[in-house]
Write a structure and sequence with these properties.
Length: 300
């Protein structure tokens, strides 16, 4: 679709990833409707041209009103807190919320959508590539814990409801997303970098910059061949030690990181997204410098 002048509703627009998505869409000339519970959480987006409409994921009627006039939807809002293991809270946001979002979108006449999913829906395995065809956890059986299970349920539900309502859907599956104003990963990294010396076992997990995921959202909306497809939008499988070493390079201070090689890690290749969407995951140092410029408190 042509994004210039199009109205795109973004749920969770004030969240860490939502801000990046909203800005990427605005850069393409889209009119962004931020559908959020609390517009003041990222009120600065108003000055960047984002229109806020207030609605909770649990309020289907409010969502329908918020989606009015939108040409497409980015279903980004979800419960993602590393410390929240409560099944009922995750289920409400990630399952019931998804159901309300897509039913409301259908009533509002939206026919194109992007679902922000996660690689957490896969069954993990060391020393193997996990691509878009790999097996998934059984969400209804609560495999993988509250977040992973309910996100598997969420994506499956999105596919079913979009097929039912005639909504053209693309799903993006990021890995560990980091960026400015992050309240999940970055605060822990900041604490770790306060130490003078940081021994780190060589365990790898792909970290992906929120700005790169946002660019993938834009590319998927622009490319109709992405309809009906799911894409891993993941970072390079590198050790956490490499990320923290890049942190020290970007800030010029912090812990000296000593990597203890183990060679353990999980790989989620993003080759499909690279081919179809031009997806790239920028180097850690480059991304971190952007983050620290926007969110200087993280580098202190």
């Amino acid at each position: 679709m042509q994004l210039k002048g199009a109205k795109i509703a973004v749920t969770g627009a004030t969240g860490m990833l939502g801000v990046y998505i909203s800005r990427a869409l605005r850069k393409k000339g889209a009119q962004v409707i931020g559908v959020v519970r609390n517009p003041d959480k990222a009120g600065f987006l108003r000055g960047e041209g984002v229109e806020f409409r207030q609605a909770d994921l649990m309020n289907a009627a409010a969502l329908e009103q918020a989606f009015a006039g939108a040409d497409a939807l980015v279903s980004n809002a979800a419960l993602y807190q590393l410390t929240n293991l409560d099944w009922d809270q995750n289920y409400a946001a990630n399952k019931t919320g998804t159901e309300n979002v897509y039913n409301a979108a259908a009533k509002a006449g939206i026919k194109r959508a992007i679902q922000i999913s996660t690689v957490g829906l896969y069954r993990f395995g060391l020393f193997q590539d996990i691509d878009e065809t790999s097996s998934q956890v059984n969400g209804e059986a609560r495999e993988g814990g509250a977040y992973r299970a309910t996100k598997q349920i969420s994506e499956a539900l999105a596919w079913r409801l979009c097929a039912q309502h005639g909504i053209r859907l693309t799903a993006l599956r990021p890995s560990g997303v980091y960026g400015a104003r992050d309240t999940n990963l970055m605060p822990y990294f900041k604490i770790a970098m306060k130490l003078p010396l940081l021994p780190m076992p060589g365990v790898s997990w792909p970290l992906v910059y929120a700005g790169d995921v946002a660019d993938a959202v834009v590319a998927a909306l622009e490319n109709e061949r992405s309809v009906g497809e799911a894409y891993n939008t993941t970072g390079d499988t590198r050790d956490f030690a490499d990320f923290l070493t890049a942190w020290r390079t970007a800030t010029g201070k912090g812990a000296w990181v000593m990597k203890l090689p183990l060679g353990l890690g999980v790989k989620f290749p993003s080759a499909k997204a690279e081919r179809a969407l031009g997806f790239t995951n920028r180097p850690f140092v480059e991304a971190l410098r952007e983050i620290f410029t926007e969110d200087p408190s993280l580098a202190q």
